[in-house]
Amino acid sequence: MRVFVTGATGWIGSATVDDLLDAGHEVVGLARSADSALKLEKKGARILLGDLDDLDSLRRGASEADAVVHLANKHDWGNPAESDRAERAAVETMLEALVGTDRPFMVANGLSGLCDGRPVLEADASPAIGPDSDRGGSENLALDYVGKGVGSMAIRFAPSVHGAGDWGFVNFLFGAARKQGVSGYIGDGSTTWSAVHRSDTARLIRLGIENAPAGTRLHATAEEAITTRTIAEAIGKVLGIPVESVPEENAAEHFGFVGHFFGLTMTASSARTREALSWNPTGPTLVEDIESGAYGTA
Question: Where is the NAD-dependent epimerase/dehydratase domain (predicted)?
């Protein structure tokens, strides 16, 4: 297949491009800079210059592809409304280009906002509906297009998609620990996160566009529930610093923006995903990655 990938040089996207190429697929990666284009060219991928605001490029990339994997997001923490607007416009543009083709379209989502005290199931619909909701309601928008002849599916990522070089939430927790001299957890540390290795995530994305039926929700979670205290203890062990509780009211000051997410339970089951696609995660656990130096050492 010819697969159009947005976010092709990002943390998850770069691994996805590698996996798709290794499996014999042709990849067209959206590149917003010469540096990004060069990275993709070196891998053997084709380039489409543009970004999430370049709707003409997104339309072209989708219309010329056999499948689309949409991983890009502005992640503008200072202006989330702008991120949501851009996401909605980009997804709608690509979906319109695929109407009536039945070609696979995979849209990424996270678990934040989906959890209500129990692990999220693949059958659970996202509560984000409409352009003013989280991510512009892109998951529900995409799934609505199944009835218009688009092979839409959603993939929901664990809050930690980890591995050597990860610049996500765990990397920010390391940064806070180094700055404060203490590896903290919030309250009693019983809040839990799901986690998955980047290589397992990339393989699931490929399996999804190859085999998953339209309307599917996939969960990229290998470890269902790791306590935040366990994460903090692993970070403290690697850095050789104390591990202490941080009161909830001090979380923002101690951790920065990531403190909000570290205080949330974000877990999901992947039982249906594993059964449907014979996906069996084989990568290291989050603690194994931390302790092996994937995020640096003291």
Answer: 3-83
